[in-house]
Amino acid sequence: MEGDGRLAAPVSGPLATSVCWLLGDAARELTQELERVLRKDDLRWRDYGVLVVLEAAGPLSQQEIGRRLSVDRSTMVHVIDVLEERGLVARARDAADRRAYSIRLTDSGRALLVDVLHPATEAVQERVLGGLAAEDRMHLNRVLAQLAAGR
Amino acid sequence: MEGDGRLAAPVSGPLATSVCWLLGDAARELTQELERVLRKDDLRWRDYGVLVVLEAAGPLSQQEIGRRLSVDRSTMVHVIDVLEERGLVARARDAADRRAYSIRLTDSGRALLVDVLHPATEAVQERVLGGLAAEDRMHLNRVLAQLAAGR
DNA sequence: CCATATCGTCAGTGTTGCTGACGATCGGAA
DNA sequence: TTCCGATCGTCAGCAACACTGACGATATGG
């Protein structure tokens, strides 16, 4: 990922009209802000992703989590290690497939998500997108969702 | 950056409604595709950025380029080294500030941009955003531009 | 003329994610 | 059942990467 702390100056000229750069910039800013907030709880974007996925989908194998976040399975090992050490998730052998773990959110993990993480990221989102009209935000959401669906 | 080749499965549930994840996913996909295309010319997203910035703004110092792309000045040294070796940009001492270089696009660099890179990235953008109605694309562009401006 | 700051450079460093192998386990075919 | 290929999690090694902190050269303000 990028260095934080540093601000990206908006690019002028023809670039400003390219969806490509605009999208990249917006995503980078949002991600940077998010990382900054999450760092207070010693978490990364990636860790937050794991918790969110588990909250949404219930217990999953390490590999399945990685698949949904574009994280390599070998990388997931350590990510889960850390999360488990902190008591946010728990490993249990999957009864149906004993090669795999069944990773689940602990109460502690769910509490962190609900009480701290979700509010914090909500705030960031609010701040970054705050300048948009409600109508535009809904539209943005709809268009992006359509983009994600059409893959 | 992320590993390429790997596909990100769309996340289901509450996440799908969060602009945050949607934006991140869209940007990641676009970036990955772009990197894949640029690799044919042995270039990275970052290199392309340098060329585009120079095309848009004219000669700049290394540090100024880095500032606009969120790239550290020490990293820029090597980026420019490679681009210069390939004859795409040229270093000249800035007459007004002899500490700094004045990096400019060569004819060769401009030609590559116009003949190869721009068409290629256009195509990617077309493919990724192709599923959207023209009206939605314009709206997306407008909203993102507004977002970039309001910083 | 001196102090401080900036530009580009470079060696060293720490982090990061991937590659490729491993044992264990699963699933299907013979 | 037995066998074979594929998959799960793990780990050591590796390669890429960007950042840190220092340096000489230069600029700028007192």
Automatic annotation (TrEMBL), chains A, B:
It comes from the Bacteria. Residues 16-149 form the HTH marR-type domain. PROSITE patterns: HTH_MARR_2. Pfam families: MarR_2. This is MarR family transcriptional regulator. It comes from Microbispora siamensis. The gene is marR_1.
